[in-house]
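Hi team,

Filling in the usual template for the complex we talked about on Friday. All components are listed, including any nucleic acid strands or ligand strings, so the model treats them as one assembly.

SUBMITTER: L.P.
PURPOSE: interface mapping
COMPONENTS: two
RESIDUES: 642
SEQUENCES:
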Amino acid sequence: MHFKINMTLVAILAIVLFFNIPFYNNWLNTNLLNPAISISSTYKVLDKEQRMVSRFGYSYSVYKEMHSVFKKAKIKDPIVLLPPDAYLKEKKVVGILVVEPAIYYYFTGGKAVWYDSPDVLKANCAMVPNNEGKITVKKINNREELNALLDIYKRYKLDL
Amino acid sequence: MNLSGLIFLLLAQFFAGRGVIRLFGVTLQPIALACYSMIVGVFVVSLVPCVLQLLHIPLTASNLYYSISVSSLLLSVPLLLNIKNTKLPSVSFPKLYELPFLLVFFALAVISVWRCFYFPPTPRDVLTGTELIAEFAAREKTMINSVFKIDLRLNSSANNIFKSPFITSLQVVYKLLVHSFGQVWLSLLFLSFTIWFYTLLRQIVHPLLAGMLMLVYFAIPDLFAYSYVLLYDYANMVFFVGGYYFLTQYLAEKNIRLLLWSSFLFGASVYIRSETLVMIVMVAPFLALYLFKQQVKLSQVVIQTGLFVSFSLLFNIVLNFFISKFIPFRFNLGELISHDFFNFSLLIEKFTKIATDTIFSNKGKDVYAHFFYFFVFVFIADVIWPRKFSKDARFALVGIGVVYIGLVLLSFLIPSHTIFNSAKRGLFRLIPLAVLYMAHSGILQKISEYLKKKETAASVPAAANPVSPSTSKPNTGTSKKK
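RESULT (copied from the run log):
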């Protein structure tokens, strides 16, 4: 029995020493014991949408909201022209990441395009930053409005 | 969450997997049997939606219930035929000194399982590929759905829709039967593999050392993260390492059933990530050479090597068939392959870069922590003393070499297979093999023998125990068929 108790103490010591190695200590504390989203803070929040928001952040809420605005405005088959991320940054929009059309579709079930998408000319609405660093949505009424936006967006590189 | 759906799938997967193991006729130890029943069951279930899709049967919850039930029942037939010989397994409880480690592992496993259940699939690779297809397959009841009418960035670097339907199918099943995020199957693979791996390690070395090795393994940040983040690499690792382990068992026991079983597991790993085929083809010459050295007839060497690669080739064909049927676009692999075959300086650069940029770098530390430093330390210690490399240790080293060189070749031949992004997860296959090497290393075996001797001496009066436990051969996870 003494042997087993001694071995148990060795096991405990090994674990303590291991998690005192700075890297593992940091990993344990920041990722496991005190993560930004812990089990204790999440087990009561089981709503699917809230979990999506907690994982994908503010951007997800913005895209969902945007899609519901198009629906409320009764735009038939909305296809959203998304701006390049670099353009949003230049306009000092904070906290929103531009997603690629596939992820927009995954989030909202709605279609989106980038300026180089094959269906870009079918875009009938747009996500546009204003000069105050806020996101606005607008309906694209004609080819001139679309071209004007494309002329701006094409100056920026698209990043996946 | 639909708990009854989860219980149904747990049972269906277990019996399907158990049936497949029975078909192969391999006899595994109780825990290995339970774990591999679940692992193989997950793989079997992943094929069901593909078959339904081929038959143009809508992917509804009820159709999946029926088809999974039927496939599990069919695969259970070999079990039913042999039900008289079924015995309840005897399970030994862990020792007191294992409990601190087990508590830590349990806590980590709870975190992993919770995150897998709680969070939606996140990586871009799946959101623009398999998960996207699965989400809309669950809504539209077909894998060929509206996703293919949106801009999938097919002209850019993204080719995520062309990846294996393994994740797509499992996501469809789990989304429709269990939970809208699917994904829980990943926890089943994680738990089954981890439990099997720990029991295997404690058979190779003293449980105290097994606990320490497992702790180092568990605390690899990226490997732990991918136990709950949906991607191919963890599942691929599970099947690849299983295949490699049972190949070594075949070489030890010369039971052809183990060779076929190993081939099947390797085949499943190819089905999950097709580039694994490169590594399996690289293992084949080692197998042939080994058999040749054992003075096996040349015809037998050819047959057995052929059997070894057979499932990998078969599943590669099945994979490409499914992709051609389910994806309405064509994928041109030729465009991705570099034609600069004789650029040896680039090959050498890739060879060194995996070590310098991915493993032993600051970025690598964030991914693997100090794991590879532990491995190198044990290896160097082994070279210095006791300089004994057992057969199992050498097999593990060959496996490590194959994975490493395989990744070098892949990044050399396919420039988009980047060193840091692609190879870093590809190296997951190597990690359990490195742990196995450490367990078989001369130095740990010496310590293990010492501990076992001490333990026996402490528990049994010396006069009553003339047999030293150090002389007993470690039990390695398979049991010989009687």
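MY TAKE: Strands of chain A lie at 79-81, 111-113, 125-129, 135-139. The first strand of chain A starts at residue 79 and ends at 81.

Thanks, L.
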